[in-house]
Predict the structure.
Amino acid sequence: MQRILVTGGAGFIGSHTVERLLARGDQPVVLDNFNDFYDPAIKRANVARFPGVPVVVGDIRDKSLIDSLFAQQRFDGVIHLAAMAGVRPSVQDPLLYEDVNVRGTMVLLEAARRQPGLRFVFASSSSVYGARDRSPFREDDDIPRPVSPYAATKRAGELIAYTYHHLFAVPVACLRFFTVYGPRQRPEMAIAKFSAAIERGEAIPFYGDGSTRRDYTYIDDIVDGVVAAYDRCQGYEIFNLGESATTSLSELVDALARALGREARLDRQPLQPGDVPLTCADVSKAVRLLGYAPKVGVDEGLRRYVAWRRTLN
Ligand code: NAD
């Protein structure tokens, strides 16, 4: 049984992670500031799913809060998912992204280093790979050119976590998530936004010519990877967590419309600054070291996602 601080535990990936930890007998504690990046009522509904779990409402940048939390509770590890997420909004407000994603991560690492052996799992992102057309992406690829503030802050998080591992022997796993979807996906992400528009009969914002490709990863597969990385967290490792298959934007819209049983109308718009043409994970390292085995392809994942949406109405 592990006592684990899950930052961002009220969010999409965080709430699924907490449920998984509970199901296997761990003791998660949620820290989340319930900010209004999207409707905080969604986050409140997420934590209402696990009424017995302590929920600390607070900010990862609040050093005195973090220090007192670590002093009161003896955590075995931290799964650090709290962040300002999303590429496009980071272009609008880069300083906020830097403050939360870099400084907030450092405040947690400062607390972690004072407790020898405490494991630290950090949510990174496929966006750190930048704009590339060669795939699949490997953890040891040279990645000097992030193309959005969000990507740069996630890479900075990986680097500073390495420093804490090097100086203070904090065991660290950095997980590069590739576009995660499934029940409770953030409402501003493409699949959620497109679904809502198609259901209302509205045109969906469709950026570029539809040829951009993404490696879409179903939430249950991501959570498998998160808990496996936590369980085997030692040294300093970076893992890609993806599905290792790519889907073009056009294919995604077609598959989603099929799953919804509706027509999709497109509102064509230019590619957005910070967007990348392709993401595709080489997951062989996670397969080898974590036993990671993604199971849910896009068609099945979208069916499950649509089935969940229908439970909301
Ligand atoms: P999310 O926005 O649903 O969850 C993040 C949570 O962190 C939210 O509940 C938010 O309230 C909380 N939070 C934000 N700033 C905070 C702060 N200063 N203090 C305390 N809590 C704060 O996002 P998600 O999609 O669940 O993403 C989780 C993590 O995974 C993030 O680090 C994100 O960058 C990363 N990630 C997500 C994806 C994806 O496709 N969803 C892809 C790559 C990386």
In short: The two ends are 37 Å apart (CA to CA). Residues 7-8, 10-14, 31-35, 37, 43, 59-61, 81-85, 100, 104, 123, 125, 177, 179-180, 186 surround nicotinamide-adenine-dinucleotide (CB under 6 Å). Residues 127 and 262 are 31 Å apart (CA to CA).
